[in-house]
Amino acid sequence: MKKILVQLWPFIKNYKKHVVLNILFNLLYALFGTLAFVSLIPMLNVLFDKTQKVIKAPVWNGIGDLKNYANDTLNFKITTLLDAGNGQMALLIVVGVVVGTFFLKNPRLSMMVRIYDKMNAQRKKVILAAADKFIKENTNAS
């Protein structure tokens, strides 16, 4: 292994900054990939009514307890909405969290959203009409 690195060093030394950034962004990709996968759990809990009831708003105890705080906050919001009879909004929030973490995980997909935002109005109408037609043809939506 050391011999290979010694042979590659003349080529790599000009790209030290890029190597460091590559490692950093790979770590961020792994982090957001894990978060996107873990964020599916609350959505499934809402769908199957297995959400842990949190009646008191969670208290911030510092960065070390971030995971529990985020989980309890989400469960508190969902519990509040479900108790108010607003299950659709609870599910919408959870799906929004899942989609948000998915876009953070995959920057190329968020780039598609930015491209769509810059698109001219006529092209947007064509795309939305095609999407609407596809949904009507392939679902029970009315």
Estimate the helix proportion, in percent: over 70%
Structural class assignment: mainly alpha
Number of domains: 2
Calculate the terminal CA-CA distance, rounded to whole Å: 62 Å
Number of E-state strands = 0
Rg value: 22 Å
How big a fraction of the residues is strand? under 5%
**How are helices and strands ordered from N to C?**
HHHHHHH
Largest sheet data: none
Shape: flat
> How many helices?
7
Low-confidence stretches are: none
In round numbers, the mean pLDDT is 78
Brief descriptors of the model:
7 helices; 142 residues; single chain; 0% strand; flat; mainly alpha
What does this structure look like?
The protein is mainly alpha-helical and 142 residues long. The protein folds into 2 domains: 2-105, no CATH class; 108-142. Helices cover 77% and strands 0% of the residues. It is built from 7 helices and no strands. The protein has helices at 2-12, 16-38, 40-47, 66-83, 87-105, 107-118, 121-138. Helix 4 (66-83) packs antiparallel against helix 5 (87-105). The longest helix is centred in the N-terminal third of the chain and has 23 residues, at 16-38. The radius of gyration is 22 Å and the shape is flat. The mean pLDDT is 78.
